[in-house]
Amino acid sequence: MPSSHSLRSRTRDRNSVLGRPEFMSLNQPLRGGGPSESRGNARRPGQIKHQTSQPSEEPTDSANKDRREPSKMPEEDCMQLNPSFKGIAMNSLLAIDISLSKRMGVCAYTSSSWGGCRSMVALLALTGHGITWIIGTIVCLTRSNTLAGQEVLVNLLLALILDIMTVAGVQRLVKRRGPWEMTPGFLDYIAMDVYSFPAAHASRAAMVAKFLLSHLVLAVPLRILLVLWALLVGMSRVLLGKHHLTDMAFGFALGMLHFSLMESVWLSSGTCQTLISIGTLSWSPFS
Fold it and tell me: Distance between alpha carbon 108 and the CA centroid of its chain, in Å?
């Protein structure tokens, strides 16, 4: 048996060998992972170096990508972030129009501030409805016994039909909803007055008022009442929450345009008599 002195000398020699620099890694404790993991890591130093260098490249790529993103910004976003003066002015005017129209819709519902006057305002608006004026014009035409009166009534009837068709076409193109987005009534569907822009009642009232002022001999008080009626009819639709203020203003302008157009194509008395004969099925081409 070896003596204790020889055992101590062998242990001292072994510790001195393990203390050498090339064996220092063998003396370090393991940090999570078994021997196989330490051996695998020791065998692939290049892989470890590659893995440690990879994360440093990713932020560089992301940073370069962030630098390139502003140059690829769509043109629409640039326009929204830097709007033109014209766009700002139009948006501001539309916002003011909507705000004022909502405030003026005091008869929009029965629970509104002027809800008790809603039926009266609705009756005033009915006097400017297209169906009301067409039926009234046809009734007056059947009872008229003068050529001059029939001439005026026929041209008025054609102007009303032109007004309804033009306003309905513009409303279909624009498709603007009213400030309170109410569902159109039955008469509105008949007259094709479904959308808000332009205001059909305002257009019709302006055209009829100008037409009657030009072709009827009226006293001054009646002329003032006729102009006041046209203004109140256009305003009534704003009070009912059906139209914006800009809808009413454009409706008045469109009504004046219809009157000017009808004046330029005014039908003579003979043409009107022919149309009346065709309408009553009493027209004969050989008479």
Answer: 21
* Local confidence band at 236 (pLDDT 50, 70, 90 cut-offs): very high
Catalytic residue positions, numbered: 201, 243
Contact 226, 213 (CB under 8 A): yes
What is the rounded CA–CA span in Å between residue 149 and residue 141? 8
Using CA atoms, how far apart are residues 220 and 231, in angstroms rounded to an integer? 17
- 252 and 234 in contact (C-beta within 8 Å)? yes
Angle at 233 between CA 151 and CA 246, to 5 degrees: 110
Asked which of 12-26, 183-197, 242-256, 263-277 is least confident by mean pLDDT, the reply is 12-26
Give this prediction's pTM: 0.68
How many CB atoms neighbour CB 34 within 10 A?
A: 9
Question: Do residues 112 and 105 lie in contact, with contact meaning Cβ atoms separated by under 8 Å?
Answer: yes
d(CA 148, CA 215): 10
139 contacts 175 by C-beta, under 8 angstroms: no
Report the residue count for the chain: 287
The DSSP symbol for 90 reads: H
> Closest Cα to residue 241, out of 286, 181, 199?
181
Burial 186-208 (b: 16+ CB within 10 A, else e): eebeebbbebbbbbbbbbbbbbb
Largest CA distance in the chain: 156
Q: Can you read off the two tokens belonging to residue 35?
A: 């021997």
Q: What tokens appear for 10 in the block?
A: 């062998």
Rounded to the nearest 5°, which phi and psi values hold at 122? -65, -35
Angle between helices 200-215 and 220-239 (to 10 degrees): 170
